[in-house]
Amino acid sequence: MPVPVILDCDPGHDDAFNILLAAAHPAVDLLAVTTVAGNQTVEKTTLNARRVCAAAGIRGVPIAAGRDRPLHGPPLVAENIHGGSGLDGPGFGDGEPDVPQDPRDARTLIRDTLLAHPAPVTLVPTGPLTNIATFLLAHPELIPRIERIVLMGGSTGRGNTTPAAEFNILCDPEAADIVFSSGLPITMFGLNATHQARATADVVSRIAALGTPLSRLCVELLTYFAGTYREVFGFDAPPLHDPLTVAHLIDPSLISLVRAAVSVELTGTYTRGATVVDLLGVTGRPANAEVGMEVDVAGFWELIVEAVRVLGERSGD
Ligand code: RIB
Ligand code: CA
Questions:
Q1: Residue 61's CB: how many other CB atoms inside 10 A?
Q2: Is the CB of 278 under 6 A from ligand 1?
Q3: What is the pLDDT of residues 223-249, one digit of tens each?
Q4: Which of 292, 249, 241 lies closest to 13 in space, CA to CA?
Q5: Using one digit for the tens of pLDDT, what is the confidence trace for 75-92?
Q6: Which residues hold their Cβ within 5 A of ligand 2, which is an ion?
Q7: CATH for 3-315, options being 2.40.50.140, 3.40.1190.20, 3.90.245.10, 3.90.550.10
Q8: Domain spans, the chain
Q9: Are 42 and 100 in contact (CB under 8 A)?
Q10: Catalytic residue positions?
Q11: What are the tens digits of pLDDT across the range 300-317?
C-alpha cells in the first residue's frame, strides 16, 4: 500500500524535487501540499509549489498556504541560496500557474486531509516546523491520525545558518521543540546526512539527457542551486536536502538510522536553534527520534532521476 503523505514545505529548490519525487513514485500517495515561510515568504513559497506542480503536470493535489512567520520573532529567508523568488534559475514568467491555491489555510487542509483519510497519514515537513507545531497545538485530538513525522532539519553536527544551527530549525526553534517533544514517531534527516546527497555534474547530465521540458527545468534549478552553494559555502555540488525524506519512505534501506535523544536549543547565546543529538546516550534522555546517518547516494539519485523521467514523459511538452 502506498504511504499517504502530506508535504509541508518552503520551495525552495530542494523542496521542489521532493514534490516531484512524492508525486512520481507509486510507493507514495501525495494527499496534500502545505507551504510555510522559510526559504522565502509564504506567498512566494506557495506560488513556487504551484509552479512546480504545474510544470510537472501534478494535478488534483491541494496546495494551501500556512504560517507567514515563526511562533516567536521575525521570519528569516534564504535569498542567498534560493534567490529572490525562492526558486530562481528557471524563467517561470509572470503569469499565474494553472494549478490553483486551495482557499483553506494549511492547518485546515491538514485537518481535513487527516479526517478524510481512512488510515493515519505521514507528515513530511521540509521547511521550518511552524505549521506542524501550530497544528499539533490546535488539534491534539487528531494526533492519533498522524502516523509519523519524517522531517528535514537539524544536524548531528554543525549548522549551516549559524555554526550551530541548521536553517529550518533556526527559523523556528520553539516550533521544532514542540515537534520533537510531541511523542510522535519522528525521523530526522539533518545536514550530516543530506550533505552526502550532492547533485554532481554527472547527476545533472543524467537529468539533462532525459530531454523533456521538465528535465530542462530541473537542470536550470540545479544549475542555479549549484552556483549559490559554490558561492556561499564553497561546495563543488549542491546537496539536495529535502528529498531524503520521501526517498526514505520509498526505500527505508537507503539511509541508515540510529535512535537518539534530540533536543532543540532555545536559549543559547551562540547555539539557539541547534539540534543537540545524543548519539552516545550520555544524557540518559530517552530517544525521541530516528536520525539519518549514512546515505546510499547512488540509490538516492536513481530515485530522483526516475521521478523526473516519469513526470517529464507524462507531462510532455
Ligand atoms: O538547511 C537546508 C534546509 O533549509 C532545506 O530544507 C532547504 O530547502 C531550506 O528549507
Ligand atoms: Ca526546505
A1: 18
A2: no
A3: 999 999 999 999 999 999 999 999 999
A4: 241
A5: 999 999 999 999 999 988
A6: 10, 12, 15, 126-127, 242
A7: 3.90.245.10
A8: 3-315
A9: no
A10: 241
A11: 999 999 999 999 998 865
